[in-house]
């Protein structure tokens, strides 16, 4: 994302904090009283004013389509720094209309080829939104709900309330205790959350995400979800995120996603993607809208050849849309509903590693039923016979040193263990002691010690290093016993933005294979062979922004 929402480092203030996810709101004056009365709308000259008939009143600018006010129980929640809530950084001059259809009010915003919609339902404290981006003529990658300072407070990884020092770009901060904070550190993949927000006392403010059918990156993608500082907070629905992106953006109608107020608890599960039904919107004339009757379903009776130690996820994707669902642990059954008609690539993931794909066609109103999918043994690199292996093949660095921390902290964070990590095969700690990331300027030259039998040392072997992403074309070159050095491998296609330092290891999984000749091995079976792993690249800068890569697994095959 751009740096337009990066707040300056702030002076330390004393706040009363509650639990990390539910901090107490500061006391303060109420906004101009607005009593929710009868469901309906009015025109105050500058804005359309919508009364939900419950406890929510919101306003939308008649000239820009910005959300200019969110008043819940008489308190204003919208806005900080003189800015409204809106698409991207605001659309500017737009055509804005409003209409009521029974128990629904729809506000339509048109700006060039982009269309955005706000809907209110009688008696609900929700704002339903859709965004239709038709092409690249309008920069529209997110919706941001800007929330007044003091309404909610926390010190979570995606907050920078107490930070005083910028350590990377203008959006990664360090606290005085050495912990790091950034709006990028959400911890969560798309598949991991249905809503994001805050709660304070008896008020909860949330964005319930859409099904992301027009977003990009798939189920394991991480993006900016919220931020908070002493200046205010932001909640996001990201439609296309420029950081560590592996796919081109998709166009068309995305939504609905929902701004939901509650009495302090989580939003209703009926609003969650996969649960939300919007038959009430079928006749509203929303551009690009496809109701339930115009969608289909894909179901699979099971998946064989699975590794029971890991979850399996099935993804559907083409240039127009993406969907996913989880395979049942017992037999691999899956069902993915609400799919737009078309032909899709179906991919089976073991954890985050693609192990099978095929093509499926979906028709409106129909169910495409697949017979049991058999994942060939050779498709899972974990099934290959190995002399030794560091970590299992999952498409993630999970299990390596610092791997879990890296989704919500900078590599320089005080909580990170040392990024050095030479290991001895057979020690029992070869995975947990090996760093999840290797950088040219930080810890290149990691060593792996291992012994071979006489028979093993008499033969050539294939060494494999799996990676999940790379920064600045960082890739591994290996040296064996200081006598044999591999060629520098060609860099695979990876995102060209920051990744390893802003909470994401997810790129394009790739396996480097090195044919090590028998002459490279030591013939003395009592001695350790030494494998050195260097990171090579002519690009990148220094330290944690030097060329680097994230490791999935390393093994030496029989």
Automatic annotation (TrEMBL):
Keyword tags: Cell wall biogenesis/degradation, Disulfide bond, Lyase, Secreted, Signal
Cellular compartment(s): Secreted
Enzyme class at the top of the EC tree: lyase
InterPro entries: Carb-bd-like_fold, Gal_mutarotase_sf_dom, Galactose-bd-like_sf, GH-type_carb-bd, RG-lyase_II, RG-lyase_III, Rhamnogalacturonase_B, RhgB_N
N-terminal signal peptide: 1-27
GO-annotated molecular function: carbohydrate binding; rhamnogalacturonan endolyase activity
EC numbers on record: 4.2.2.23
Any Pfam family the entry gives: fn3_3
Domain of life: Bacteria
Residue stretches making up the Rhamnogalacturonan lyase domain: 295-370, 387-556
Principal location: secreted
UniProt-listed GO biological process terms: cell wall organization; pectin catabolic process
GO cellular component: extracellular region
Domain Rhamnogalacturonase B N-terminal: 39-288
Catalytic activity: Endotype eliminative cleavage of L-alpha-rhamnopyranosyl-(1->4)-alpha-D-galactopyranosyluronic acid bonds of rhamnogalacturonan I domains in ramified hairy regions of pectin leaving L-rhamnopyranose at the reducing end and 4-deoxy-4,5-unsaturated D-galactopyranosyluronic acid at the non-reducing end
PANTHER family for the chain: RHAMNOGALACTURONATE LYASE-RELATED
Family to which this protein belongs: Belongs to the polysaccharide lyase 4 family.
UniProt-recorded name of the protein: rhamnogalacturonan endolyase
């Amino acid at each position: 994302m751009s740096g337009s929402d990066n707040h300056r480092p702030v002076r330390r203030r004393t706040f009363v904090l509650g639990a990390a996810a539910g901090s107490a709101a500061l006391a303060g004056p109420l906004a101009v009283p607005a009593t929710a009365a009868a469901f309906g709308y009015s025109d105050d000259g500058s804005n359309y004013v919508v009364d939900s008939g419950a406890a929510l009143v919101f306003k939308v600018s008649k000239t820009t389509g910005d959300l200019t006010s969110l008043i819940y129980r008489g308190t204003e929640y919208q806005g900080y720094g003189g800015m409204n809530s809106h698409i991207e950084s605001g659309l500017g001059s737009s055509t804005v209309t409003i209409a009521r259809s029974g128990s629904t009010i729809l506000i339509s915003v048109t700006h060039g080829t982009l269309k955005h919609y706000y809907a209110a339902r009688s008696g609900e404290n929700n704002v339903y939104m859709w965004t239709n981006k038709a092409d690249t003529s309008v920069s529209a990658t997110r919706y941001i709900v800007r929330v007044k300072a003091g309404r909610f407070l926390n010190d979570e990884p995606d907050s920078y309330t107490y930070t005083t020092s910028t350590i990377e770009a203008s959006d990664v901060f360090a606290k005085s205790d050495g912990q790091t904070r950034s709006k990028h550190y959400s911890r969560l993949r798309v598949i991991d959350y249905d809503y994001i927000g805050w709660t304070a006392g008896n008020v909860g403010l949330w964005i319930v995400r859409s099904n992301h059918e027009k977003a990009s990156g798939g189920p394991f993608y991480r993006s900016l979800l919220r931020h908070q500082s002493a200046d205010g907070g932001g909640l996001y629905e990201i439609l296309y995120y420029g950081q560590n992106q592996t796919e081109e953006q998709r166009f068309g109608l995305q939504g609905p996603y929902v701004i939901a107020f509650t009495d302090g608890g989580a939003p209703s599960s009926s609003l969650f993607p996969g649960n939300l039904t919007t038959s009430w919107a079928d006749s509203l004339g929303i551009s690009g809208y496809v109701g339930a009757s115009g969608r289909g379903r894909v179901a699979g009776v099971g998946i064989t050849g699975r590794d029971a130690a890991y979850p399996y996820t099935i993804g559907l994707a083409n240039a127009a849309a993406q969907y996913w669902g989880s395979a049942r642990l017992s037999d691999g059954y899956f069902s993915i509903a609400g799919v737009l008609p078309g032909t899709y690539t179906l991919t089976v993931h073991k954890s985050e590693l693609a192990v099978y794909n095929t093509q499926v066609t979906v028709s409106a109103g129909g169910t495409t039923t697949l017979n049991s999918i058999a994942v060939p043994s050779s498709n899972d690199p974990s099934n290959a016979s190995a002399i030794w292996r560091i970590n299992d093949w999952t498409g993630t660095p999970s299990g390596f040193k610092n791997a879990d921390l890296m989704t919500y902290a900078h590599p320089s964070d005080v909580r990170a263990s040392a990024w050095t990590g030479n290991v001895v095969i057979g020690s029992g700690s070869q995975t947990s002691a090996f760093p999840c990331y290797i950088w040219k300027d930080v810890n290149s030259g990691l060593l792996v010690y291992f012994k071979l039998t006489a028979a093993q040392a008499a033969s050539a072997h294939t060494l494999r290093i799996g990676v999940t992403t790379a920064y600045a074309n960082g890739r591994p070159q290996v040296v064996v016993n200081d006598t044999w050095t591999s060629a520098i491998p060609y860099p695979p296609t990876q995102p060209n933005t920051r990744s390893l330092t802003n909470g994401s290891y997810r790129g394009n999984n790739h396996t480097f294979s090195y044919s090590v000749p028998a002459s490279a091995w030591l013939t003395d079976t009592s001695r350790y062979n030494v494998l050195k792993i260097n990171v090579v690249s002519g690009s990148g800068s220094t330290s944690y922004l030097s060329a680097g890569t994230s490791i999935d697994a390393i093994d030496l095959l029989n």
